[in-house]
Amino acid sequence: xxxxxxxxxxxxxxxxxxxxxxxxxxxDVFSLDLTFEERSIGFDxxxxxxxxxxxxxxxxxxxxxxxIMGPVSHNAYPPRSEGGVNPSAILRSGLxxxxxVRPARTRAGLDAPSQRTFDLVLFRENTEGFYADRxxxxxxxxFAPDADMALxxxxxxxxxxxxxxxxxxAAAEAREARKVTAVHKANVLRLSDGLFLEETRAAAARHxxxxxxxVLVDAMAAHLVREPERFDVIVTTNMFGDILSDLASELSGxxxxxxxLNHGDTYxxxxxxxxxxxxxxxxxxxxxxxxxxxxxxxxxxxxRTRQEPALSKAGHAISTALDHALRDVMARTPDIGGKGSTxxxxxxxxxLMKGEG
Length: 357
Ligand code: ATP
Prior knowledge:
Layout: E1 2-6, H1 12-30, E2 35-38, H2 43-49, H3 55-63, E3 66-69, H4 87-94, E4 99-105, E5 119-125, E6 142-146, E7 149-152, H5 158-173, E8 179-184, H6 192-206, E9 211-216, H7 217-226, E10 233-236, H8 238-252, E11 261-263, E12 268-271, H9 289-305, H10 309-326, H11 342-353
Parallel strand pairs: 1-2, 1-3, 3-12, 5-10, 8-9, 8-10
Antiparallel strand pairs: 4-5, 4-11, 6-7, 11-12
Helix pairs in contact: 1-9, 1-10, 1-11, 5-6, 7-8, 9-10, 10-11
This protein binds adenosine-5'-triphosphate.
Adenosine-5'-triphosphate is lined by residues 10-11, 71, 73, 75, 255-256, 274-280, 286-287, 290, 335.
C-alpha cells in the first residue's frame, strides 16, 4: 500500500508527521506493508517550482493507493497567474473524489460545547455546488459583469446527487441507527435542490432498510445544536455540508478533532476538516487528532474497497487508540484542554496501538 504524503502549509507538516508516526505503529502491529512517499504542495512547492500544485503531484496521487493531505493556506496564495492554485480543489476534481465524509461524535472523558451525546456522519457532495473554482469544466463559476455586480453559479447535477446519496445510504446500512437525513433548501432553490432531493428520494427507495427524512438547512443548524443525537447519516450539497460539518465538529469538542475522508470510486484522500491554522503553526501544539482520525477512515476505506480486512482492522484500532489517548489530559493538546503537544499526543496514540499505553 503506497501512501502519498502532502504536508501542506501552516500546521500541515506537524500534523502529517504525527499521523505518519501513528500509521507506522499500525503498520508494525498489523503487518500492513505500508510505504510512504512525500511531495511538496503549497508555499514550499511555490518556492521550488513556481506553483503551489505541481502537475507531477497529481500523477503521483494517481499512482498511489491513498493520500494523506495536510491543510493548505490557499487564501494567502498569490493569484493563479503567479502560481497560486488550491491543491485541494485540484485533487478533489482531478481524482473525482465526490464524497467528503465528515464524522462528528462526542467522546467519553472529553468536554464538548454540546451537552448531548451524539454520533453522526455527514456526507458532503464534493465536486460541484457553489464552488466556483471547481464546478465548471473550464472557467470559474463566479464573475463580475461590472465593478458593482458579482455573480456566482451553483451547479447541481443528477449524477453527482445520485452518487453522494448512494454513498450516504451505503454507509447508513452499516450503522446501527440506519437513518439518512437529506439537508436542502428546496423551498427557494426549487430546481437545483429539487433535483438533489429527487435523487436522495430515489436512493432511499433503493435502500429500503434505511429510514429517510428531509430537513431544511436553516432548521438543521438549529436542530444540530438542540438535538444532535437525532441524526445518524446526513447527506447534503457541497457548501451546506462544509458549513454544517464545522458546526457539528465544534459541538463535538472542536475543529482539532474534525476528521474527514474524500473518496471517489477509485481514489481516497485523508484530509482534516480545518484549515492551516497559521496562528499556531510551528509551535508544536496543533491537535493531530483530525488527521489521525482521517487516516483511520482512509485505512478503513482501503480495507473495504481492496478487500484487505487487515487495513480496516488497523483503521478501527487507530480510532480506538485515538479515543483512549484523548482521555489523557497530559497527552492531549491545549485546544481541547490538554497539557500535551502534537508529538506527545501522537506518541501516546502509537503506544496504545502497540499495546504499550
Ligand atoms: P486557513 O486560513 O488555512 O483557513 P484559519 O486559521 O483561518 O486557517 P482554521 O485553520 O480552520 O482557519 O482554524 C480556525 C481556528 O481553529 C484557529 O484559531 C486555529 O488555530 C484553530 N484550529 C484549527 N485546527 C486546529 C488544530 N488541528 N489544532 C488546534 N487548533 C486548531
